[in-house]
Amino acid sequence: MKIPSRSHVHMLSYLVVLLLLPLLASSADPDPLQDFCVADKSANSISVNGFPCKPASNVTSDDFFFDGLTKVGNTSNIFGSTVTGGNVDNFPALNTLGISMNRVDFAPGGLNPPHSHPRATESGVVIDGQVLVGFVTTGNVYHSKVLNAGQMFVIPRGLVHFQKNVGVGKAFIITAFNSQLPGAVVLPFTLFASTPSIPDDVLTRAFQVEEKVVESIKSKFSS
Length: 223
Ligand code: GLV
Ligand code: MN
Prior knowledge:
The chain is α+β, with helices and mostly antiparallel strands. It has helices at 6-25, 187-192, 200-207, 211-221, and strands at 81-86, 100-106, 111-116, 122-128, 130-136, 142-148, 152-155, 160-165, 171-177, 185-186.
C-alpha cells in the first residue's frame, strides 16, 4: 500500500476543515432532537443549555401561543422606548427551538440605546412609524437607514446597533432572533451601571474624559 506523503496529509486536513467551516459558522442555538420541549420553568434541576421539558402529557395548546407582544410597552423612561421580550423566559414553548421575538415601542424621539446580542442575529420590521436603524461593523463602519412601516432590517450577530424614532408620532417594531434567549449587552448600562461598577480610571482612560464626566454619566443610571 502506498503511504500518503506529508503534503497529501496536510492537504486532506485543510479540505476537511474547509468542508466543516460552513457547518460551524451557520450554527445558532443547537437543533432540537424532538418536536417540542416546552420549558418546565418550575423544575428545580440544573440545566446546561435551555430548560428541562414539561412532560408531553401536561402540554396543552395554550403552551404554543403567547400574547405578550400585543400590549403597547410603557415608554415613560429616560430613553423613551421599551423592549417587550417574547423569548423562552416568558414563552416557554420556545425552549430548544432556536428562535424568539421582541416588540419595541418608541415615544416620539425615543431611542432603543446601542446594544448587542451575544447569541443571535436580529432581523426586524417596522410596524408603525418611522425609525432610524443603525449598526457598526467590527471594522468600525456605520450602516444606517430610515425605515417606514413594512420595511425590514437585519443586524448581524453580536454587532452594536440601535433604533431611534425619527417620525412625528409613536413608533413600534417587531424583531426576531435565531436564539431562544439572544441576551442583550446594553452599552450605557454595561459600562456605567454594572454591579459592582467599572472603576472610574478605566472609564476616564477609555473615553479620554475627566472623572467628573464619568461620575455624571454613572449618576444618570443609578437607581
Ligand atoms: C432591537 O434591537 C431588539 O433587540 O429587539
Ligand atoms: Mn437588538
